[in-house]
Amino acid sequence: MNRSLTLLLSMTLVVTLQSLCLASPTTQAAPAPKSTMSGNAERSPSPAQASVASKKSFSSEPASKAAKAISAADLEKALTLVGKKGSFQGTVSAVYTPESNGLVILDFADDYKTALTAVLFAKDYKKFPNMQTLKGQSVVVNGQFKAYEGKAEIELTDPKQISILK
Question: Are residues 145 and 71 in the same domain?
Answer without folding.
Answer: yes
